[in-house]
Specification:
232 residues; mainly alpha; 10 helices
């Protein structure tokens, strides 16, 4: 029997990779260096008015939660209202923590004394660890509980439609930011399945752009093996 459609797991793999990398940068950042700290702020910033924030980690986490709230959760609420309500409540709490984290970074940049920035940077790193831990736990619950529930109550065609709706809502820069994190995190089988699905639903320019992205993000031998199977 072929594997069931899974609209979340590979996306969550990409989000985890983003979290791991940002966490590493936060814990090693020299908060006495304003240029370094400003650069870190760009990748953390929760400011949707700034065009480059489409690729920032906290922005993408927030958008991902919104996509689930508006596309998947109305469907899952029909068959599992208690689980869905708990996941939505998680999103509200995570959003509160995300805003607090970015506000903390702004406050650090406003401090003149390097020693004060070091103290606040250490505190910010601890808060980030708590946020990222909560977000990882939340995604694990969605993978363990929500995905099987969706597969039980919805057909593969319905699950593909949910994913297609989410993708269609994304501006290109955010889509490519997420896919750029997803593809290095996927197994070979997941990559083949992903591109098989893309070929069935995406226009030719999108397929070409995603193939170019994979060529940049993946080991050449790995990408060649995927291409030979899906004909990209």
């Amino acid at each position: 029997m072929p594997p069931r459609e899974d609209p979340l797991t590979t996306v969550h793999k990409g989000l985890r990779s983003m979290i791991y990398r940002l966490s590493s940068r936060l814990q090693s950042n020299d908060f006495t260096d304003l240029d370094s700290t400003r650069g870190l702020m760009v990748d953390l910033e929760h400011d949707f008015a700034v065009a480059r924030s489409a690729g920032c980690v906290v922005c993408i986490l927030s958008h991902h939660a919104t996509d689930e709230d508006q596309v998947m959760f109305p469907e899952s609420a029909k068959v599992a209202p208690t689980l869905t309500a708990a996941l939505i409540e998680d999103h509200h709490e995570l959003a509160r923590r995300e805003l607090a984290l970015t506000e903390g970074m702004r406050n650090i940049l406003a401090l003149e004394a390097p020693a004060a920035r070091l103290v606040e940077g250490a505190r910010l790193n601890r808060e980030a660890n708590q946020l990222f831990g909560a977000y990882l736990t939340h995604m694990n619950r969605e993978d363990d509980e929500l995905v099987p529930l969706l597969q039980e109550h919805f057909t593969d065609s319905q699950l593909v439609a949910m994913r297609t709706t989410i993708i269609a809502r994304m501006p290109p820069e955010r889509l490519f930011a997420i896919v750029g994190e997803m593809v290095p995190s996927m197994t070979p089988a997941e990559l083949v399945e992903f591109f098989g699905s893309v070929r069935q639903s995406a226009p030719a320019p999108m397929i070409t752009a995603l193939a170019d992205l994979c060529a940049r993000k993946l080991d050449p031998a790995r990408w060649a093996a995927v291409r030979s199977q899906v004909g990209v």
